[in-house]
Specification:
Length: about 500
């Protein structure tokens, strides 16, 4: 008999779990509080302009990548534009181009730092070898931390003799490997590396887990893509598949309470509607759990999940801009990082990421217009009063525009639409308390075996999203959704 499954939240994690389970033939209901799918990878429209909520650089879409495997299983091919030049990285001392080709990328780095040519070559050789070894585990996708006998057996069965070489690195940071290779005191190189890591790992080289940093620094070489329209297309495709396979999707349904009734789960939404299910997948920010679960259920959650509920993460300030590129010297490139003086750090406009629509992308803007999504990391305490909030929003917005104008002269004159997405906006539209986004920094204390499992600790209740193993980004959220779907179906699925 088919299971009755409730998925709460149509972010990438929830959509992945829901669409896989519906394709598998299960009876699935998906509740989403917004009118849009995708959560932080969703979209919104202003006039004739479509803005992806977050960054739009597509990864995990290469053959064998996490998203590609999901869409192959769903029989939903994606329209993609592969990037040989992934992004520009603008730093005070130099502008780098991130090349898909590994050899070309290393050659460029050594040309910028000829005095450390051999050290950089050896460093990248180790990074690429380590990433290739870690990637051999991704075919089977074992769960960390394993919490059931089945998960332990699956992990052990996934290990090969080659994985022994990873053991010395398991409790090392990238900082340690930079020291080994004589690069820790090359600040310009470290600053460039830190700019890449803050966007994917939510932390820099000093604290990031080396094994995860190796994947983060290598993954762009596996395949990076421009997705016409934006990454919300992933959500739209999964939503289509979900409906086609008999799933029930209800938008504008905010779950206010989740409780156990007669050995089943019962969710109650803000309209008083109730939904009974044998299994529940929560793709909601874990900081919301105290608002949904009664105290007696909260006490039964696994300890890492309980601790994570009270742990703050980064917030963000996003700028959403439409420009008439014909007023500029040339169309803007699709992806660009801008980093300021390394002494300023990686937050509060010390570093930010720009995603820009291509001139030919009619899904985003009419002819002659490019839409831009820009985001920077910020600390939540900077926004905790009304007086601070308005001042910080205006200050950071102006500093970003000033920094952009140094790279793109006269951009202000080309702006035809401008608005901000500050933490309260993220809280209002994505349900994230205090505007927390991006998941936890992937440090040794919060990654790998110290991650939060998708197994909540409560019977038939699972969690997924960017706070759950393996962490932030669409790939991490999708993987946690895969793990939840596997636990419910009892099948590998992909």
């Amino acid at each position: 008999m088919n299971k009755h499954i409730l998925v709460v939240g149509a972010g990438i994690g929830g959509l992945t779990a829901a669409s896989l389970l519906a394709k598998h033939g299960e009876n699935v209901t998906l509740l989403e509080s917004s009118s849009e799918l995708g959560g932080c990878a969703g979209k919104f429209k202003r006039h004739n302009y479509v803005f992806p909520v977050g960054a739009t650089l597509g990864m995990g879409l290469e053959p064998g990548g996490i998203h590609e495997r999901v869409f192959r299983y769903l029989e939903k091919p994606m329209t993609l534009q592969p990037l040989d030049q992934v992004m520009q990285m603008v730093h005070p001392h130099a502008t780098f181009t991130f090349y898909k080709d590994r050899a070309q990328h290393v050659e460029q780095m050594t040309s910028h730092f000829p005095q450390a040519s051999q050290n950089i070559t050896a460093f990248y050789r180790e990074i690429y070898q380590t990433a290739a070894t870690v990637r051999t585990l991704m075919d089977r996708l074992p769960v960390l931390p394993p919490t059931t006998a089945k998960e332990w057996l699956y992990l052990i069965g996934s290990l090969q003799p080659k994985h022994i070489r990873l053991l010395p690195y398991f409790n090392q940071t990238l900082e340690k490997r930079l020291r080994v290779h004589g690069l820790s005191k090359l600040p310009e190189f470290r600053h460039m590396i830190d700019g890449l890591l803050i966007d994917s790992m939510q932390t820099g080289s000093e604290d990031v887990s080396y094994l995860l940093a190796a994947i983060a620094l290598d993954i762009y070489h596996e395949g990076a893509y421009y997705v016409p329209g934006g990454l919300y297309q992933l959500a739209e495709k999964m939503g289509e598949s979900f409906i086609e396979n008999g799933g029930t999707l209800k938008k504008r349904r905010t779950v206010k309470k989740l409780e156990r009734k007669n050995n089943q789960w019962r969710a109650t939404d803000h309209r008083g509607n109730t939904y009974d299910a044998q299994h529940v997948v929560l793709n909601v920010p874990i900081h919301q759990l105290p608002n949904i679960l009664a105290p007696d259920l909260l006490r039964q959650l696994k300890k890492p999940l309980r601790e994570g509920m009270t742990t703050p993460t980064w917030t963000t300030l996003a700028l959403y801009i439409a420009v008439d590129w014909r007023k500029l010297q040339a169309p803007l490139p699709p992806f660009r990082q801008i980093s300021l003086d390394g002494e300023q750090g990686l937050a509060e406009v010390g570093h930010f990421f720009m995603s820009v629509s291509t001139p030919a992308d009619s899904l985003r803007a009419p002819e002659g217009i490019q839409t831009i999504t820009i985001s920077t990391h910020s600390e939540a305490h900077r926004w905790d009063t009304k007086e601070k909030y308005d001042a910080v929003r205006d200050e950071l917005s102006e500093r970003m525009l000033e920094a952009i104008e140094k790279v793109i002269p006269h951009i202000r004159q080309a702006i035809v639409h401008f608005e901000t997405g500050a933490p309260k906006g993220w809280e209002r539209y994505t349900g994230r308390p205090n505007g927390y986004v991006g998941g936890f920094p992937q440090t040794l204390k919060s990654s790998l075996f110290n991650s939060i499992s998708h197994q909540s600790g409560l019977e038939n209740l699972y969690v997924c999203g960017d706070h759950i193993f393996p962490g932030g980004g669409t790939i991490g959220a999708a993987t946690s959704g895969i793990h939840a779907a596997r636990s419910i179906s009892g099948e590998r699925l992909i």
